[in-house]
Specification:
The structure holds two protein chains of two kinds. In chain A, helix 3 packs parallel to helix 6, helix 4 runs antiparallel to helix 5 and helix 5 packs antiparallel against helix 7. Chain A starts with a helix and ends in a 10-residue tail after the last helix. Chain A is mainly α. Helices cover 41% and strands 18% of the residues of chain B. A five-stranded antiparallel beta sheet of chain B has the order 4-3-7-6-5, with helices on one face. A four-stranded antiparallel beta sheet of chain B has the order 8-9-10-11, covered by helices on one side. Chain B has a two-stranded antiparallel ribbon with strand order 1-2. The radius of gyration of chain B is 46 Å and the shape is rod-shaped. Classes of the chains: A mainly alpha, B alpha+beta.
Chain lengths: 194, 345
């Protein structure tokens, strides 16, 4: 009987894991989710934000640029954010990137890992958080601008900070970022998590 | 002289016949003289038409040129917009990640973008559009071009949409070629164009009003010129037949012979000469000649008229009747032929 219960529980656990893995959008709000899964989902979300920022720079109208800036604010702050605006067009993540990355440091303290690894992850997470805060400030500046040229410059800053937070593999690892965290958890890139 | 049936205006002529100035005066302002504006009304209308046509034409050309620049800028940004979208989604194109592509496409469908479609390896991987926009499936069988292209597509409501198609290059051999296209709504551009046209029209109208107002103001004779002409007209000797009264020089000549009058007699004759061929009442004469004598009356007027007539008669007996009595109305200095029947002597 005990064996049967254990088998049943394991099967349920596996189904839950598969169910989470099959969704295209990782649910960052699930507290019980493993950190590596959350990191992978975070990377997907950040990659999406970078994509939005990259084409937002070339928005054909000033209104489009402002709308993309609001999309990025929604991605960064999440549904509970102060500047969040609900959009009927796109699904907004329940937890924003800035909010999510703030919870990782607590998880590092609870996880079992080498002190050097913990220090590296803490530094990388801090950098990612700083870059995301800067990107959020830049996105809010876009909404305050009254001219397309000035708003475009702010959007370029958003893209630059988001790209810096992502830490692309071909870039120097002197300033640790998300790629360092992904490698530490065995997820080498956002596309590996699907 | 036959009583004139014309109005009471008279022609004041200078002593020299070759003076081109011919002035008319109104009964209210005896002796006034006005010169016409230097430009005729027709010339002013021509100037107005020229200014309006020139400024309107210039504004039209300027707005059209500005609209062309606006559209070029809009087109360039739209092309770069779609290219940046394709480039940013490349990591999810090879291999294809439909969920991420769909999420990124929905992010694109805000504001001006009406639809987006991604084609990879001959298959449509993403097809998203805003409700009510142009249907993505077309019957013309136009395949995706292999190079970047943009064109105008007419929507069902008659407005055009800018469609941009961008090839996706350097995909793996397993994935194959691809391209993406998006439809951009130029409504914001149309609004900006309309606002520019309205602003140009308002500026042109304001400019025309200012310029034409300045031209019209410049055409008016100046106060100093009016005053100078008026004063010159006032100082000009008054002529009534052979009688010439020069109020400036204080001389009276009759057929070239000087006529000696007392100051009061001179003032009387000068006033009548200012109102040649117009009947002056006793009251008018008293107000003009005896302004400082409150006790003067019609008898004084009658007496001085008699004295002036007698003095004129000493030179030419016929000129006694130059001042005619109009019974019941007053006296009149005539410029034409003398009618002896209208005197009381």
């Amino acid at each position: 009987m005990t064996t049967r219960c254990m088998s049943t529980g394991l099967a349920v656990l596996l189904c839950l894991m598969l169910g989470v893995g099959m969704t295209g959008w990782a649910d960052l709000s699930a507290e019980g989710q493993p950190l590596e899964d959350r990191v992978g989902g975070f990377a997907q979300q950040l990659r999406l934000a970078i994509s939005v920022a990259s084409f937002a720079v070339y928005s054909p109208t000033f209104r489009d640029l402002r709308l993309h800036a609001q999309q990025l604010i929604n991605l960064l702050e999440g549904a509970e954010g102060r500047h969040f605006v609900r959009s009927e067009n796109a699904a907004s993540p329940p937890v924003g990137l800035v909010v999510e990355v703030a919870t990782w440091s607590r998880r590092y303290a609870d996880a079992t890992m080498e002190p050097a690894t913990r220090a590296m992850l803490t530094a990388a997470t801090r950098n990612v958080r700083i870059y995301l805060d800067l990107a959020l400030d830049a996105a809010l500046s876009v909404l305050e601008q009254r001219h397309l040229d000035l708003a475009t410059m702010d959007m370029l800053r958003v893209y630059a900070y988001l790209a810096a937070a992502y830490e692309r593999p071909e870039e120097s690892g002197a300033v640790l970022g998300l790629q360092t965290i992904l490698r530490a958890f065995g997820v080498t890139s956002a596309e590996d998590f699907d | 002289m036959e009583r004139s049936k014309k109005n009471r205006t008279a022609i004041i002529r200078r002593s020299t016949d070759d003076d081109p100035l011919v002035a008319r005066r109104s009964p209210a302002y005896p002796g006034s003289a006005m010169r016409r504006p230097s430009l005729s009304h027709r010339a002013f209308l021509v100037v107005c038409l020229a200014v309006v046509v020139t400024t309107a034409g210039g504004a039209f050309l300027a707005v059209r040129e500005y609209d062309a620049l606006l559209f070029d800028a809009f087109r360039e940004r739209s092309i770069a917009y779609v290219q940046a979208f394709i480039a940013s989604t490349r990591p999810w194109l090879d291999p294809v990640h439909p969920d991420m592509l769909r999420a990124a496409s929905r992010m694109l469908l805000v504001g001006s973008t009406l639809y987006v479609e991604l084609l990879v390896g001959g298959e449509v991987v993403v097809q998203e559009r805003v409700d009510g926009s142009i249907p993505l499936a077309r019957d013309d069988g136009d395949p995706f071009p292999g190079v970047r292209a943009e064109k105008r597509i007419l929507s069902e409501d008659g407005e055009w949409v800018l469609e941009v198609t961008v090839p996706i290059v350097a995909l793996s051999s397993e994935t194959g070629e691809g391209s993406g296209r998006a439809g951009i709504d130029p409504t914001a551009l149309r609004v900006q164009t309309r606002n520019t046209a309205l602003l140009a029209a308002a500026a042109t109208l304001l400019f025309d009003i200012t310029v034409l107002g300045a031209v019209f103001w410049g055409m008016r004779p100046s106060r100093s010129s009016i005053t100078a002409e008026f004063s010159a007209a006032l100082r000009a000797p008054r002529v009534a037949g052979p009688l010439v009264v020069d109020a400036d020089q204080k001389t009276i000549t009759l057929s070239g012979h000087p006529v000696a009058l007392t100051p009061k007699q001179f003032s009387l004759l000068a006033f009548l000469a200012e109102n040649v061929d117009r009947v002056c009442s006793d009251r008018e004469i008293l107000e003009a000649v005896w302004a400082d004598s409150p006790y003067a009356d019609s008898k004084d007027v009658k007496q001085y008229v008699y004295l002036v007539r007698r003095r004129l008669a000493t030179i030419d007996s016929n000129e006694r009747n130059r001042i005619q009595t109009v019974p019941g109305f007053g006296y009149k200095l005539i410029s034409g032929a003398i009618d002896s029947a209208l005197t009381d002597e």
